[in-house]
Amino acid sequence: MKPATIGETWARMGSTLAGLMFLWAFIQQFIPYEFRRYVEKGINRLISFTNPYVKISIHEHMGDGLKRSEAYIAVESYLSTNTARKAKRLKAEMGKNNKLTLSMDDYEKLTDEYQGAKVWWSLNKIIRSGTGSTFHNPEPERRYYSLTFHKRYRELITESYLEHVMKEGKAMKERKRERKLYTNSPGYNWSSYKSTIWSHIAFEHPASFQTLAINSKQKQEIMDDLVAFSNGKDYYAKIGKAWKRGYLLYGPPGTGKSTMIAAMAKLLDYDVYDLELTAVKDNTELRKLLVEVTNKSILVIEDIDCSLDLTGQRKNDKAERLTEANVGEEKKSNDKEVKELKTNISKVTLSGLLNFIDGLWSSCGEERLIVFTTNYVGKLDPALIRRGRMDKHIKLSYCSFDAFKVLAKNYMGLESHPLFDCIQQLMNETKMTPADVAENLMPKSVCNDAETCLLNLIQALQEVKEEIEGPKVKENQEVIVNDISAKLNPSQTSKLVDD
Questions:
Q1: pTM for the whole thing?
Q2: Does 301 or 100 have the greater pLDDT score?
Q3: Are 84 and 90 in contact (CB under 8 A)?
Q4: What range(s) does the AAA+ ATPase domain occupy (predicted)?
Q5: DSSP string, 79-95
């Protein structure tokens, strides 16, 4: 009998596969689902008796998928070291210092060895099908890593290798970590895992405690408190409290509250989550957002007294006015507008916010700072800012002479100058925010030198003092000018007199 050629062999295999596919389609269409599942379970059980390999799956989301698995993230970081050398299908994204970071693409496989044991990693995904799937709203994708190894290495893999992967992965993640600034997305579709709860960008704010214009004693106290918190994991576990701490930053506008947050993030190397409460529909959505906040992060709600009606004292004046309208067609149009207003108003409540800050949900995560800022601390509900919720209250006030010296060094490189005494005297007699002081110290042209900037600041301080005290300042202004003139060269003196 003439042996079959290679082409004939492939033709037979193709026809066989086609027949099997037709048979499987027939079974799916005419055999009941319950019977098919029973057969599949039996086949899988039979294969498990003969298959010498063990598989472990590590899913990106567990349960309802409220939070990414720490184990999945650790495996992702661990495998990234071998990805560039061994994987054939890669994904690239911009990482720290604008360098591309490579990771495994879907369905890619990698081989790893540990103490003589050979293992295989693969990245897979499950696309759930269901009646809720549409073109514009596809069903969620569930990704997971699959680890395969021979059963003879079960003890080595489960007791040693996986621990090694977790430890190395977490260390690699910290080394490659880039600080990020997050904000919540108002149009998020909560039913889809493919949507983004938080949007983020790289957080490269240059502010630090060294450049922060506040009293040096207060600055050191805050830094010590932050470092003690970041090293306090065992202490918080010992006293039975969630590893989180609340900071209330309050003071007039322009006193550096936002800059303080950036300095805190830089000192501790934390991410920042800027929560916009007015974009959150209700307490349920708020809870989902807050659960997604990662460890080593700062959750910020700026101007909390303006974000929502959390005190129960303020009302929506427009809605109240429209509700009171009760005549003819005007009433009908007003009712419609009231309905629209009520629909758009966030239903986040004070109790919903407090439950996460200091309730049962406060333990969902660790090493978190919660920071509120406000210009009017008196407007806030006492329950919101009591100790235990906002543990440390930090008042950021007007610019002191100590803070001015920090700004002078930052903006002009000066640690001392003959005009400093005059500036100190004026600062003791008037109030100016660090933001206004900094604006006057900033050169407005290439011709501006340090003395010109200092003179601009002195003039601004005199104007503020004149607004407060009135005509009395004009009587003493000549004395101040003469005192400054004695410390300056003739050209600077003439400029000051002209001003």
A1: 0.68
A2: 301
A3: yes
A4: 243-400
A5: HHHHHHHH-SSEEEEE-
- What is the distance between the alpha carbons of residues 388 and 366, in angstroms, rounded to a whole number? 16
Identify whether the C-beta of residue 203 lies closer than 8 Å to the C-beta of residue 259.
Answer: no
Helix, strand, coil % over all residues of the chain, rounded to 5 = 50, 15, 30
The gap from C-alpha 140 to its chain's centroid, in whole angstroms, comes to: 23
Higher pLDDT, 355 or 309: 355
Helix (H) or strand (E) holding 245: strand 244-250
Alpha carbon distance 46, 371 (integer Å): 57
Nearest to residue 373, comparing CAs of 226, 251, 210, 204? 251
- 109-114 and 117-127 as β-strands: parallel, antiparallel, unpaired? antiparallel
Query: Within 13 Å, how many C-alpha atoms sit on residue 161's CB side?
Result: 20
What's the rounded Cα separation, in Å, for the pair 100 and 84?
Answer: 11
8-state DSSP, 436: H
Chain center to CA of 453: 37
| Residue 256 zone, left/alpha/beta (φ > 0; ψ -120 to 50; rest) | left
The whole-angstrom separation of Cα 423 and Cα 404 is 9
Q: Specify the DSSP element, H or E, that contains 301.
A: strand 297-301
Q: Which two tokens stand for residue 387?
A: 């100790």
The closest of 5, 383, 436 to 255, measured between CA atoms, is: 436
Count other C-beta atoms under 10 Å from residue 252's C-beta: 14
CA proximity to 389, closest of 431, 422, 348, 355: 355
Say if residue 164's pLDDT is above 90. yes
Q: Is 29 exposed, middle or buried (0-12, 13-18, 19+ CB in 10 A)?
A: exposed
- How many residues are there in the chain? 499
430 against 351, higher pLDDT: 430
Q: For residue 66, what are its two tokens? A: 């409220």
